[in-house]
Amino acid sequence: MLLNIFAELTIPVEVWAYGSRVDGTAHEGSDLDLVLVAQDGTQVPMDILQDLREKISESNIPILVDLFDLARLPASFQSNIKSSHEILWTSMVNAVNEPETKLKRVDP
What we know:
By secondary structure, the protein is of the alpha+beta class. The protein has a single domain (about 1-90), classed as 2-Layer Sandwich (Beta Polymerase, domain 2), CATH 3.30.460. The protein contains 4 helices and 4 strands. It has a 4-stranded mixed beta sheet with strand order 3-2-1-4. The model is unreliable at about 95-108 (pLDDT under 50).
């Protein structure tokens, strides 16, 4: 379900999971913490972030999902996330090795 939501993105981003569900300290009520990471390191447009949050909240995903934009978080928090995360989804491709490939969904 989440991957289908992210597959609708039209900008080059990665979706990273971090927090207790990544580091192994999750319990039954733990949420899933996600951040969007724009290819160029800039902020993801707020309308896109809000649209994704709305689609996630309206989905039937059985856990709470928190979605943030990495570029909008404090530097210290960004550092913690960068040091311990898993890539959940990406629309970025290696343009050097695949010059004619359009952005695509990559399943982890």
